Each structure stands twice: as structure tokens, then as C-alpha cells.
Amino acid sequence: MSRSRWADTGLFLREFARDPLHTAAVAPSSTALAAAMTLPLPATGEPVIVELGPGTGSFTSAIQARVGGRGRHLAVERNPGWAALLAQRYPGVDVVVAEATELPALLAERGISGVDAVVSGLPWVAYAPGRDGRGLHALLTEVLAPTGVFTQFAYSWTRWAPPARRQLADLRAHFAEVVISPTVWRNMPPAVVYQARQPIPMR
After folding, report:
1. Structural domain boundaries, residue 172
2. Structurally, how many domains does the chain consist of?
3. What is the pLDDT of residues 140-172, one digit of tens each?
4. pTM to 2 decimals?
């Protein structure tokens, strides 16, 4: 493991100990998981990519490699320290300190009306319904283009727990197509990737 990856792992462990409910992982995601998460991203054109909960940038790096400078990449991170680190590492990415639920307003401020892909590193708790009774999946169906794709990872050992099963059911209620990848064994812990397409607007 490289020195920078060891440093990032230390950051994750400290943040997980401080706020486990809002930290999805105890270590940065592997390159194998990042590749699986970004595989559905458009290979041509000028796509608009939104990244939720980028952390220290495992998926950010893969997104940048995939799009090669094309389009726009907005990274929404609630942790100011991680956001600052991300902005330093990836000056071409539009990094903003905000909650994922603020996404519609963030897009409106930038004049963006349709998102081609949303890549999420958020924990399942982030998808719980808010005060208006609507969860994050409902919000995503409103900002994604009809041909857009949403990717979210889950650790294999948590997939059958009640919270994960509820979230998967909610995901299927908001997208006409949900595909679960084979297990990515080259990640610690092993994980799967949910690919959701054909958003179903709730209003």
C-alpha cells in the first residue's frame, strides 16, 4: 500500500470513530471497486457527473480517468476537511461542502438541468426520508436525465441486513432497472455495486 493510501486509511479510521453513522467505510475503496462504480459512466460526449460523499477521492480519481477531462464533475462532500483535501488533489473538479439533499439547489446554481451519472459513496443512512417524507432516491430521480445512471456500493456482508434490504427495495421503487454486480473481492471488505437506470419521477 502506498504512503498516501496509508494516510487516507488513517483519515477514514479517525472519521469513522468520530462519526460512524455518516462515514460509509473504514478505509478508502480499492481501485477494483472504483472501476466497477465508474464503469457505466458515458465514454463519449460531455457528461455531467455528480459524486456524492467522495471522501478522500478513490472514486474521484476513477471518474477523472474515465471522462478524461470531458464534461463537468461536481463532488458534494459534507466533511470540510475532506473537501479541502479533494479540491487540492483534483483542481479540475468542482468540490462543494454541502449535504447530498442540497443537490437540486447546487445544480440550479450552476445552470445544470440534467445529470448523466451519480456516483455515490454515501452510507445507507443518508438515504433515509427527510422531514418532507422523501428520501434521497426520490431526489435523484428528479436530477438525473432519463438516460442517466446511478451507482452505489454496499459491503457484501451487510447486503442481507434489514436496513440494506429496505434501501434496495426503495431503490427498485425509484428506478425501473436495478442491476447488482458480482462481488468485488479485491476490496476490503468485499463489496457489490448497484447500477440503477431509468429513473421514475415521483411527481
Report:
1. 3-199
2. 1
3. 999 999 999 999 999 888 888 888 888 899 999
4. 0.86
